[in-house]
Each structure stands twice: as structure tokens, then as C-alpha cells.
């Protein structure tokens, strides 16, 4: 592994030149009055004339533009330093209101007064994320489906219509284009060390944001438009994220972590200030700042391991505009782009844990996707929850420990650190589709259990309904369910079945909890597995909806019965509903059991028997069709209980035949 001390930069030579030198080549002094009026109005034409274009196709010449804008940026930086905070607020604060993040931009002004490199970099990361979000809001004045990538947003016709193409080209010199300074990506992906980001570029982006606010105000007055800010993403069910409890992240362990970063081979020496600043921010309850600083450092640390283990040291550096960065997505993949096996998981002490955690918190669609949401401005920085920061800080400390020196072994066993290491060792994916399916199954089972508490009229009252037949049809369905359970006993834990009452001894929440607790590999799930899981999730969702509809419908009909508000036909239908509930509960519980059993064996089946897998996938889709029809029939608009009974009978017959033919997915795995 490359020694962290030997790495002096993570910027390739051309990128380092562009960011650190190109904008300093012209040393002439630029008069701020050329681009700024006495009342703070930006003279955009004077700014845009510094953007140069290629003669060949009139696209932006980024090299010449950076060189030309260098003195302008320096002038703006010096001008801001000459202002007091009060002067700046009076003159410019109102022009930040369009961003919905005025305080963030005022904080950036404070940072520029002291030019502390780490704080400048942090300020620039926050500024670019807030600016991107605000520009997305402006985009939605003219179009739908705001582009996800900043470069596509800045190149859009919608923003050009509002601000002008020349103005957007100025922005693209600084952010959004891989051919320009690309400050946002270079920082958010962990390539730039603190000392490599000139403060004058941060000042220039602050200046440009005020100018954009002025242009937007003019546009809104002309068009009588109103800028609407999209709501921030709010983290819900924070208890699901609690892999590293906050009680373990006290001042003592944070002090140990500050020593760890100085000795861990995971930390590049040039990035050390970012780590110290991140831990300091956490101790000061600045949770968003802490996570913003840590995420790029986790990426660069993993990139160091990735490039070393896969023997591609050149990829530690920023890629040129013609190539891709080595980012989290590639580092967490099973194979490299040349189809060779990614060696990074083997380097990690507990590859499944580290990869599962990173996939959960950064990539999985139903996870918090912290990096994406922070970097694109989707989260309110002022209310960023400590519970989320706990996870990133806790994970970072465990990684630092794993890659500490040999003589640090005793530290790993330290009474304060050991609980965190245990949390890491026990971690299981929470947002992989398989994990989400387990959650769905158990939530659905809890819903079905509520049926036992539904108010219902006495049985003798139901039987008095004129024309209502006996329960023979429902009883026959319950008998079929018992037969199917009997066929499945070989695939279930021992001692969970009672011959006296198969349904109530097997189809229990306790059994499902036990099966769902079975550890299933979620890392690098192959496509066939994900296809099966996707269908199973849809089946589970439909079952849950049926349960909710039955609960709501039965409650309503009971109230109407008590109040004698049901007509004769409605009373008859209510009786059919009560009959159907008797077999629907075990049917839905049987389906949930089947889902869970399939889950336990899905990996081995898809690998060993592709033909059988395809047959069973077809069957699963027929079960899905059944549950979708159930949703329709049990809806308050339909109330088709006779049809529900007939449909259930056909499905159970089909299910029993498939069990007999041993095409069940769990049987194929044996």
C-alpha cells in the first residue's frame, strides 16, 4: 500500500495547473469598479467579456477564460475583505434570498475574512450545493424534471433563458464542466487538499451568486413569475439508521480519533486538516459540516485502498475531462470496468460490513443517500440530524482503527472503541431490496394480526341473514391451506408445527421473525435474484394493502350494522366479508411465509437452476396477479367477496400442484 505521507497531491498535473496556477499567471490589478456599481449592482457584460471562446466551434475556451478571470477573482476577494460584516449584509444579503440559504452565504463571507484553508474549502462545498439547489428551482420556472447533474443543469436552455447563455458560461468556468476548474466535483470527491483551493475562487462564486439574484429579480418582475423552493428532504425513521449509537461517540472517543487520524494509513497526510476539522465540527454540534468534511475523505481513503489493491495507482489522481473519476460507485462495484474482480473488498477486514454500510448510506435508492442529497443541496444544513452524523463519524472511526499501525492493536481493544468495533462487526444491510422485503413482510404480518381485534357481530346474527349460505366453501379453502403447509414442513425449522392446528402453529409472526433473521448475503446480488425480490416485494405490498382495506372495510360495516344503516343487500355482502376474512387471513399469512422461504434460498436457486428459476418467476407473477386482483375485489368501491373466494380457490389449487411437482424455489435450492 502506498504510504500516505508520500502522496503530495491527488490532482493530476493538468488539473493542478488549472486550479493552482493558471488563474495567477496574469498579475495585473483589476479595478473592482469595472464590474460593480456603488450600490452593489454587478455589471455582467464586464464579467462575461472575460470568457473566451474557441474559433473552431465557439465553445468556451476554458484555459484562456480561467487565465483571464484570475485577476477579476483576486479583485473581488480583496474587495470583500475590505468590507465589514455589517456593510456586506446591508449591501448584499437581500440578493441571496433567492437561494433560500442566505445564512450559508453570509457564513462564507465570514470565512473569507480569515482565509483558513479548510474552512474555505468547506464553505465552497456548502456554497456550491446550495447554489445548485437554487438554480434547480429556477430551472423549474421554465421546465420539468430538473437535471440531476450540475453540468447538465448549467448547460440547459431553461437557465440560459432566465440568466443568459453568456452568464451561464461564466459559471461553467468555475463549476459544472470537467473542462473548467470543476471546483464542486474536485472537492466533493475528495481530490483537493485544503491548500489547493484558492480563496479567490470562493469569493468569486459568492459574488456571482449576488449577480444571479439581481438578474433573477429582473426576470421575475418582467414575467410576473414566482420562484418556488422545493421542500428539503427530511430523514424519517431515524431509528433505522442507528448502526452506531450516539452514546458511544463521546468526547473521549473523539479525542482518541484525533490521534488515530495522525497514525492511520487510511489518511493521506495532505488531507489531515479535513479530518481534524470534521471531528471538531462534530464536537461543536455542527453535524452537517462534520459529514460534509468526512464524506470526501472516506472516498479518498477508499480510493487509496482501491488503486493500491487493484494495481492502478494513477487512478488516485483526478481524471482528465476525457475520463471518469474513480468514485464510490466504481469502488463499491464487484468488477472493474475491464471485467476483472475488484480487489478492494478483500483488503477490507470485514468487506461485507464496510461495503453494506456504504451501499446503505450512499447508494441504495431507499437509503438516506447522504452524499448525493448533501452535495446537491437537498438537505437543510441548519437542521441536519445528529443521528445521521453519528453513523458517518462512527463508521469513519472504525475504518481508521482497521487501518492503524500494528502497534495500535491495543487501541482497537480499548474499552471506549471496542463497542464501536462491535457495532461494525454486527452490521447488516438495512436498505438493500432484500432487507426492505424482510421489513415489508413483518409489517404486513403485524397488520394481519390486527384482524383478530376487529369488531364483529355475533355469528348467530350473521347466520340470520336471509339467503346466506353456510361456511363450507370457506372451510374447504382453509383445508387446502393446511395441506400446503404440510407440504412445506420440510423447509421450515423443526418444532414449529402442530398436527392439531397447522395454520395457527405455523403461520405466526414468531416464525416469520425467525426466518427474516436469517443472514442473507446482499452484497453484489445478481440480476436474477433482484428480479425475484422485486416481484416478491410487489406481492408483499399488495398483501399489505388488502389487509388495510379489510381492516377499514370491516370497521365501517360493523358501525353501519350497529346503527342499522345497512340495506338488505349490504347486510348480505357484509356477511360474505366476514366469511372471507376467515380464509383470507391464513391465505395472506401463507403467502408471506412463502415469500420468506423463497428469500432464504433465492441466491442458490438462481445460481444452480436458471431454468427452474424462470419457471418459478412465472409462477410468482401469477401470485402477484392474484394479490393485485385481491386489492381490487376487497376495495370499498368493489366489495366483491364471492369473486374473492372463487379467485382464492383457483390460486390455492395452482399452488398445491406446484408444491406437488417440486418446482418451489426453495426445493430447487436443496
From TrEMBL:
Domain DUF4209 span(s) in chain numbering: 131-210
Protein name per UniProt: EMARD protein
Organism: Illadopsis cleaveri (blackcap illadopsis)
